[in-house]
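Weekly puzzle thread! Below is a chain. First person to post its structure in token form gets bragging rights.
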Amino acid sequence: MNPDWRQDNGGSRLEGMTRTIEDLIPDYLRSLPVYVPGKPIEEVERELKIHAVKLASNENPLGPSPKAIAAARAVLGDSNRYPDGGTYALRQTLAERRGVSPQEIFVGLGSSEIIDLAARVLLRAGLQGLTSEGTYAPFSVAIRASGAELVLVPQRHFAFDLKAMANAITPKTGVIYLANPNNPTGSAFRREEFDEFLAVIPDDVVVVLDEAYIHYAVSMGLRESVEAYRKRKNLLILRTFSKVYGLAGLRIGYAIGMPELLSAMNKLKTPFNTSGVAQAAALAALDDKEHVTRCIETNARERKRLSEDLAKMGFQPVPSEANFVFIVVGPDAKALSDDLLQMGVIVRPLGWMGFPEAIRISVGTAEENDRCLSVMARVILKRAGKGELAVR
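Winning reply:
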């Protein structure tokens, strides 16, 4: 076959032109940004030859439940077998705990897979996906990767402006992505505000509600979103085992939604998308209420202390309902993060999430937070002496 041809949109072959693999990739995919994970602690320690603390990826510093670790070890010897592709036991347990049917539970590769699958099922070229500026980047990536148009609504006081988002809905809107609490700002909207928002959403628009950090929002009701789902079935609720359950490395999460929607998502997911080890650990983690309570209480106490001590340094932390603290530090945010990194404290500069003058600090253990605050004070003093940092 002559390689020097290309088929145009009308179906004809154009002589004298060579098609490349890159030509097969749609423009909307070529322009997508690559997700940048937090710098691994092993990499920092290897490069700098120092002991580091990682406060960049909102991980649970207390680790997994001992029950989850034991359950994972118990099934590790069966790893030569494929896991239960239907995640029967986990879906049954989650359905019972959340007061829905097993058909309304979808278990995925963390929340991330479900975010992507929702867009693949519900969006396409000619439609729009709606989310906020300054929120979890994979929302925008999923919308754009589906070929749909991305519509971003500005935030208000570092929080979702639900009224503005409702006003941005058009006949082309297919999906709306929300995070409550929001990553990276830590802000959250209340039940009344969300109910008002849902009341004006058309029935044919799906609201994807990512509640990855909901356990840390101690002033909010954990079951409120399920009550909203019972009233409005165009709601897809996401939960993860990566945060309060401490299973980020096992990549497992779940969704509550309409069986028809979840059935379509099941057709697109990869076979055996969650491992048997992850399923066993997740089941055991659900039963360790003592560990979950300890994680929530430790986070609330350390988040308060971290926020207060940062405020004493002159910063104005955004009130957080999550396991991290968001602060605006000024134009030198990236340089400040690099200075902290050189001293063994890994935090997250947020230019890639739309906040070039801000950083996010995950809440660690008391010892990790002590080190962060100590190093932060030293860096601020050093940079202020050089006239490089104007604390906000």
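Puzzle host: Confirmed. Bonus trivia for everyone else. Residues 66-287 form a domain with the Aspartate Aminotransferase; domain 2 fold (CATH 3.40.640.10).
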